[in-house]
Amino acid sequence: MNAATEQQGQQGLGETRVFNPPAAFTANAAVSGMEAYNALVAEAERDYEGFWARLARENVDWQTPFTRTLNEDNAPFYKWFEDGKLNVSYNCLDRNLTNGNADKTAIIFEADDGTVTNVTYKELHAKVCKFANGLKSLGIKKGDRVVIYMSMSVEGVAAMQACARIGATHSVVFGGFSAKSLQERIIDAGAVAVITADEQSRGGKQLPLKAIVDEALAMGGCDTIKNVVVYKRTGGNIAFTEGRDIWLSDLVDNQAAECEPEWVEAEHPLFILYTSGSTGTPKGVQHATGGYLLWAALTMKWSFDIKPSDVYWCTADIGWVTGHTYIAYGPTAVGATQVIFEGVPTFPHAGRFWETVQKHKVTIFYTAPTAIRSLIKASDADEKVHPKSFDLSSLRLLGTVGEPINPEAWMWYYRNVGREACPIVDTFWQTETGGHMITPLPGATPMVPGSCTLPLPGIMAAIVDESGADVPNGQGGILVVKRPWPSMIRTIWNNPDRFKAGYFPEELGGKYYLAGDGAIRNKDTGYFTITGRIDDVLNVSGHRMGTMEIESALVANPLVAEAAVVGKPDDTTGESICAFVVLKQARPTGEDAKRIAAELRTWVGKEIGPIAKPKEIRFGDNLPKTRSGKIMRRLLRVLAKGESITQDVSTLENPAILEQLKETA
Ligand code: WTA
Fold first, then answer.
1. pLDDT on residue 316
2. Residue 13: its pLDDT value, please?
3. What is the Cα–Cα distance from 309 to 531, expressed in whole angstroms?
4. Measuring from atom 22 of ligand 1, which residue has the nearest CA?
5. Which CATH class is domain 541-661?
6. Ligand 1 within 6 A of CB of 351
7. 430 lines ligand 1 (CB under 6 A)
8. Atom of ligand 1 nearest to the CA of 544
9. Which of 68, 258, 373, 405 has the most neighbouring CB atoms within 10 Å?
């Protein structure tokens, strides 16, 4: 378990304040009151497959209805609704042309500079069809992989939907990843095309995208790539490779605004999304079509209580899973109006979120605890950017995602953004789970700051010990899910063995899905509190980072002999990255150390992306190791926190180096 989340989790455990959903909210909620919640839970327990079959029929339009709900024959390679056929883009767009939503605004696009573009469902449908026809004209077909390396834009969402429409499997790579990270993902996915923009506009700056794609492709190994489609966002100067590169407008302008959807099997891979695990290489989490869509639509109703009149805003990036399920697919599947924001929370001022809520009369707002914590700081320093300086009366529901929220930040959000009138859904889930797993239901669950409360109906979450046995409430353990659920990860792309061993470990009996988080349930309420990762995965500003990945990047530098990376609690980002480094040359000190540390930070930025740059680097002649040569990360975590070591260090080979590692370069 890593230190920051452990600490935050524990803060949550002592929490006794309870906040009930407002009565008026409950009265109109999709799941109204705890009795309604309990009835759904009971239905799932009584007839697990029947429960999911009913929901899949009610929430998804099937071109060929399924007759088999769940196939467990080849567990843990579960199949859901396998003989059904459908198309995700049909469900998200065409459905909205015939149900009265055609002229409804699907997307309110708020650009970095404040320019607003509204797109109706009819317009989005036409855009996606043209895009899909354009992709087809390049020879892209069902089963091909397409990498999307895009800014936050209507075109980014359209690119995903267009792939879904023709049965191509997309893999979105976050625009903050480096050329090297992009290249690795292109190769692993075997992608035939990259969709990108010339540049992205964030915080008043123009940042390159196409240039990074060029760099990635020039690194070699990407021979599967035939085309690069470029959306002109800023008009910045970019290089063009004849025959390979094509402007999006040239690709789509003369295409028909209709495109027959490719009807795919429910298990057809909708997307691959790379995420960090506890080894040096990221894993391609592969999701299926039918079960994923069901979950995206259903959780929009259950957790967000989405109504036709809502203006919904999720501040995530399409490069992360939250931007997949709760921007590209969930909101459109339920015909919602949503804000899509190109910029950053602090530009042109740290009240941008609140100003945007006021401007578009946002009713549901979903963001990350890190953003909340940084905006608390900013509004403490400057009243003008405090939420109280804006009219936020349109808000009726708030949400958080990606990391634990500490009770103080929860309270601030509740009081200052929600005016003590909005429920907060603290949604626990993962790239692998496809959508929300444990979360309050806004019209039902009494909320406790810092707790994600109870599993959604049908989600058999539990806490077990290292042998897979249940632990009693009040006793911490390992979070598992005991039964498969529709939107679960299907496999790791190109690596089914890693999927099986990593997520369904034999030690726990081989049947439970292992989330990778520790958790504890409250003795009285049974509420879950997540206590942090149990593997070597850090959560920095809600971004998942593998310590091994950062270590591999560091040791790839010619100066570095050895490196160990640990997380350190951070007031704003939850955790921050602290790297302990041994150089091939003598341990540097003073200005030398500062210069090399800066060089290594830039290096990691190039190897992985700026989000992986260590905040601190400390140099030693060696790392603390046991006599058998194992690095003692426990000690490094204590050192990172600046605490003194009280543990027994008698097994340590080289106790003297602990002194050296106290100092940050
Ligand atoms: C953490 C993001 C506490 C957790 C959707 C998980 C959370 C990892 C919460 C997944 C929450 C996510 N409370 N911790 N509400 N939500 N996490 O794959 O450690 O980027 O395993 O998915 O984030 O991160 P991922």
1. 97
2. 66
3. 37
4. 430
5. alpha beta
6. no
7. yes
8. 20
9. 405
Nearest atom in ligand 1 to 530's CA? 3
CA distance linking residue 440 with residue 446, whole number of Å? 7
CA of 501 to the centre of ligand 1 (A): 21
Q: Which residues, in sequence order, are CB contacts of 119 under 8 Å at separation 6+?
A: 105, 106, 107, 109, 127, 154
CATH class, range 23-458+504-509: alpha beta
pLDDT computed for residue 370 by the predictor: 95
Binding residues for CoA: 202-205, 322, 541
Q: Say yes or no: CB of residue 575 within 6 Å of ligand 1.
A: no
Q: For residues 280-307, b (16+ Cβ closer than 10 Å) or e, as one string? A: ebbbbbbbbbbbbbbbbbbbbbbbbbbb
Q: Does the CB atom of residue 516 touch ligand 1 within 6 A? A: yes
Taking the C-alpha atoms of residue 593 and residue 597, their distance in angstroms, rounded to an integer, is 6
User: Residue length, the chain?
Assistant: 665
Domain ranges in the chain?
23-458+504-509, 541-661
CA 479 to chain CA centroid, nearest Å: 19
Q: What is the pLDDT of residue 630?
A: 85
401 lines ligand 1 (CB under 6 A): yes
Atom number of ligand 1 nearest to Cα 515 = 21
Give the C-alpha distances (Å, rounded to integers) separating 618 from 163, 615, 632, 661: 45, 10, 15, 6
Sequence ranges of the binding site: 202-205, 322, 402-404, 426-431, 517, 533, 541, 544, 555, 560
Residue stretches of the chain with pLDDT short of 50: 1-11
Q: What is the pLDDT of residue 3?
A: 37
